[in-house]
Amino acid sequence: MIDPALLRDSPELVKRSQTSRGASVDLVDAARDADAERREALTSFESLRAEQNAYGKRVAAAPKEEKAALVAQVQQLAADVKAAGARANAAEEAFTSIARGIPNIVLDGVPAGGEDDYVVLREVGERPVFDFAARDHLEIAEGLDAIDMARGAKVSGARFYFLKGIGARLELAIMSLGLDHALKAGFTPVIPPTLVRPEIMEGTGFLGEHADEVYYLPADELYLTGTSEVALAGLHSDEIVDLSKGPLRYAGWSTCYRREAGSYGRDTRGIIRVHQFNKLEMFVYTTPDQAEAEHERLLGWQESMLQSLGLSYRVIDTAAGDLGTSAARKFDVEAWVPTQDAYRELTSTSNCTTYQGRRLGIRARGESGRTEPVATLNGTLATTRWIVALLETRQREDGSVVVPEALRPYLGGLEVLEPVTAQ
RNA sequence: GGAGACGUCGCAUAGUCCGGUCGAGUGCACCACCCUGCUAAGGUGGAGAACCCGCAAGGGUUCCGAGGGUUCAAAUCCCUCCGUCUCCGCCA
Q1: ipTM of model
Q2: What sequence ranges are listed for the domain Aminoacyl-transfer RNA synthetases class-II family profile (predicted)?
Q3: Does nucleic acid strand B have an atom less than 7 angstroms from the CB of A49?
Q4: What is the pTM of this model?
């Protein structure tokens, strides 16, 4: 949730943010009206309640014979208090539901517009050039007997797959490399739950416009998480955390589940877009004034991962309209995928400022000693999808793949992945 | 799945049977000051969260797992839900 004070004091700032996202500006005025009504109702309830409390004390202190008369006098007051309380509750709820509909305020400098209005910040690394007909990642993987799509579909349906043999090892290797990166940077590794309660899923902002992306288990009222960001954000929900010794940095390793509703027909080949994959996710709790610098650091760690794998990539500053509900700014690192002649997203890092913190009740002591909502940030450090870019970039004419040096220690020193006969 | 116990202000606990003197006692931890050569101990005081009004000083409301109900008044009585623990069963 955005800061309600912002709504009151600088509505034009909120409106500007809404405009750059292509979101509703009217919502801002509606929220302001609801806030005014809420405060009015609250004040009237509180003064009535104060009156009633004072009466209660008089009743308690009064001699027995006077009690009945006093009690008779407050009957009406009690009814008024109840009505005022109900009105205040309703007004509060109305305000909250409107205010929650307003996505995070985008940061200055974020390009306005939709999906295609991103700004390319830089391109790094040479795009690979082949003097033979390059194979796509699935063809290579099938040659290595690393991915089995057909049987994945047989067992679980479309967009499911088996990683096997060197495919399974490759994923573990990439994850382990990422984990070592994270450890070096001081992150605490975490293997979080992947099923979460509704209020946690709600608090992270994933039940907004992308609710149909999320798997839900109605029998247990639990959601399957599409990223460990959800559980890691929930980790400190309703807590006052100690940031006096620096930010809390977690690296969550989990399986992620996504329904991919509305993407029928897109990326149907291979493991680019799947219902289930693994991901190593950085998640940081920090003070609001540190958030932007931390965001740059997260991006730096991501780039260093791609560089160590010898991938060619570009960094984009995502346009406002393409930000998630919670994000105030988002950088994507996209790797070059030769056979698609395109950059494809391998990592994404978002600065959610205090939006999630406010929704999830995560606070820290400010310098004044008062509590204030913390800023949260997240960023990908490795995912299953990386295998796509890796195989395609490092392929050779005979169908073998050269293992990047940084990855070799995680594959028992293996230097080249050789084609085998599939089983 | 069956039976039972429990959920109080950072932690540990008292209070709940008998509603008002309980927004709530005690211990530990914490902060400030005092005291003793230092440390430990001891003394005095302070200290929860959220929100509303106010330039401020300050005032007010809410919060005893959550939500309802009864009542002039609920930590305390009633209902529903959630969670934790123990035992039995079942499965690995």
Answers
A1: 0.81
A2: 136-404
A3: yes
A4: 0.92
